[in-house]
Amino acid sequence: MALALILVLLAVAAACGDDAVTDPRRATSCGGLVEAGRATAEAVLDVLGDRTVADLEAVGDGRPFTEIEHILQAEAFTERANALGCGAAELTRLACTAYQGLSNQARGEAAREFLAPYFVACD
């Protein structure tokens, strides 16, 4: 569930704004928070590349996404969402728009697994 919320927060990243926000702590709106999320999701997909979940579990002691936890900044996204009053429904709505096309950047099994909660939320 926490990964799904993080993905929702990450997804809202393609929202409007002149200056791209890449750090969730600098977001001044829910849309800006989503913008930071999109940048974070793209960075995660770059790290995951073509690897499989088994590849990641081998280096993460059975936890496949250990390697990307520092990139996700889960606590920063959650704190900022709370501070801005961004509700889960609003973030999900924005995320479903913002993540369109992001699946094309998911090259491997691990990347598709990372994005899976987003796809479930937007169905």
Sheet with the most strands? none
Portion in beta strands: under 5%
Spans of at least 5 consecutive residues whose pLDDT stays below 50 are 12-18
Number of helices: 7
Task: List the domain count as a whole number.
Answer: 1
What value does the average pLDDT take? 83
How many β-strands, per DSSP?
Answer: 0
The residue fraction in helices comes out at 55-70%
* CA-based gyration radius: 14 Å
- By secondary-structure content and strand pairing, the structural class works out as mainly alpha
N-C termini distance: 16 Å
Shape: globular
Order of helices and strands: HHHHHHH
Helix and strand layout, with pairings?
Elements: H1 2-11, H2 30-48, H3 53-59, H4 69-72, H5 74-84, H6 88-98, H7 109-122
Could you give a quick summary of the protein structure above?
This protein has helices at residues 2-11, 30-48, 53-59, 69-72, 74-84, 88-98, 109-122. With 123 residues, the chain is an all-alpha fold.
Q: How would you characterize the overall build of this protein?
A:
The chain has one domain (2-118). 62% of the residues lie in helices and 0% in strands. The chain has helices at residues 2-11, 30-48, 53-59, 69-72, 74-84, 88-98, 109-122. Residues 12-18 have low confidence and may be disordered. The chain contains 7 helices and no strands.
